[in-house]
C-alpha cells in the first residue's frame, strides 16, 4: 500500500490570514510541518495542498511537492481528496498544517495502521486528565471499543457517568480527546467527499461523524499530548517554545 502525506494549507483564515507563511523560529510554519512530516518513513510522499500562489512559491523554495487545489473546498478533507486524485496512492494521511512540532512517529503509526488493512480510517486520541477539558465543548471527546475502534465522537461529555463525579471518572481514565490527524483509504476518502454531511455531523459540526455514518471502521491511536498548534498570532511564541523544548531549534 502506498500512502501519501498531505498537508492542506490555505491563505484565508478568519483568525490568522496567511498563517502558513508566518515565521516560527526562523522558518515559515508550513516548512516546519513539511520537514517533520518528511521524516515519517512510512509515507511514500509528502504533498502540500494549497489554493494560493504565495504558499506554492514558498513551498517550492524549500523543495516541497505542491498540489494546487480549488479555493472553494469546504474542508481540508476535500482538499486532500483533490490533491491525491489521479496519483498512484492507496491511502492518505491528512496532516494539520499548523502544528510545527508534529510527531513523525505518530504519522508512522497512522500509516502503519492503514497498511494493516483492518480499518478504513485512522485517527488519534490523548487521555484527558483535567475536569475543564471534559466539560469544554471545544474539546472533542471520543469513545472507543475494546480494540480501540471509535464508537462515537462528541463535543458533549462522553462517556456520561450517572453515579460518579467527573473527577472520579477522570481517575478511571475513560475520557479521551480526539486529535485532528486523519488517515483514510483512498476509497473511503472518495466516499466521504461525495456524500452530503449526515444529520449527526451537522449537529455536532464534526466531519468524522460522516465517516461513522457511512459505516467506516475508524482505528484510534492512543498517543501523548501533541505540541501546541498555531491558531492565532498569540500562539506563535508557544510554538517556538515547544520547538525549543523538543530540541528542534
Overview in brief:
The protein is of the alpha/beta class and 249 residues long. The protein is 33% helix and 22% strand.
Topology, please?
Blueprint: E1 3-9, E2 23-24, E3 27-28, H1 29-38, E4 45-50, H2 53-61, E5 65-68, H3 76-84, E6 91-94, H4 104-116, E7 121-127, H5 131-135, E8 141-144, E9 150-154, H6 166-171, E10 176-185, H7 186-194, H8 199-204, H9 208-213, E11 218-222, H10 236-245
Helix pairs in contact: 3-7
How is this structure best described in words?
This protein has two domains: 1-102 and 231-249, Spore Coat Polysaccharide Biosynthesis Protein SpsA, Chain A (Alpha-Beta Complex), CATH 3.90.550.10; 119-179 and 196-226, Spore Coat Polysaccharide Biosynthesis Protein SpsA, Chain A. The chain has helices at 29-38, 53-61, 76-84, 104-116, 131-135, 166-171, 186-194, 199-204, 208-213, 236-245; strands spanning 3-9, 23-24, 27-28, 45-50, 65-68, 91-94, 121-127, 141-144, 150-154, 176-185, 218-222. Helix 3 (76-84) crosses helix 7. The mean pLDDT is 94. A hairpin with a 2-residue loop joins strand 2 (23-24) and strand 3 (27-28). The chain is built from ten helices and eleven strands. The strands form three sheets. The protein has a seven-stranded mixed beta sheet with strand order 5-4-1-6-10-7-11, with helices on both faces. A two-stranded antiparallel sheet has the order 2-3. The chain has a two-stranded antiparallel sheet with strand order 8-9. It is of the alpha/beta class and 249 residues long. It is globular, with a radius of gyration of 18 Å.
Amino acid at each position: 500500500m502506498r500512502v501519501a502525506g498531505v498537508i492542506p494549507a490555505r491563505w484565508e483564515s478568519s483568525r490568522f490570514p496567511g498563517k502558513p507563511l508566518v515565521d516560527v523560529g526562523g522558518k515559515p510554519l508550513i516548512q516546519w510541518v513539511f520537514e517533520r512530516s518528511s521524516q515519517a518513513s512510512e509515507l511514500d510522499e509528502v504533498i502540500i495542498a494549497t489554493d494560493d500562489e504565495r504558499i506554492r512559491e514558498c513551498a517550492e523554495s524549500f523543495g516541497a511537492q505542491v498540489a494546487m487545489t480549488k479555493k472553494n473546498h469546504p474542508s481540508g478533507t476535500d482538499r486532500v481528496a483533490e490533491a491525491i486524485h489521479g496519483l498512484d496512492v492507496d491511502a492518505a494521511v491528512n496532516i494539520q498544517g499548523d502544528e510545527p512540532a508534529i510527531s513523525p512517529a505518530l504519522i508512522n503509526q497512522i500509516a502503519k495502521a492503514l497498511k494493516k488493512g483492518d480499518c478504513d480510517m485512522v485517527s488519534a486520541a490523548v487521555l484527558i486528565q483535567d475536569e475543564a477539558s471534559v466539560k469544554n465543548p471545544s474539546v472533542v471527546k471520543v469513545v472507543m471499543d475494546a480494540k480501540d475502534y471509535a464508537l462515537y465522537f462528541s463535543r458533549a461529555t462522553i462517556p456520561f457517568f450517572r453515579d460518579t463525579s467527573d473527577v472520579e471518572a477522570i481517575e478511571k481514565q475513560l475520557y479521551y480527546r480526539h486529535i485532528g490527524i486523519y488517515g483514510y483509504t483512498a476509497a473511503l476518502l472518495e466516499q466521504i467527499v461525495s456524500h452530503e454531511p449526515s444529520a449527526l455531523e451537522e449537529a455536532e459540526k464534526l466531519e468524522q461523524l460522516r465517516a461513522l455514518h457511512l459505516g467506516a471502521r475508524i482505528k484510534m491511536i492512543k498517543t501523548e499530548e501533541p505540541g501546541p498548534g498555531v491558531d492565532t498570532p498569540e500562539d506563535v511564541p508557544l510554538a517556538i517554545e515547544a520547538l525549543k523544548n523538543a530540541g528542534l531549534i
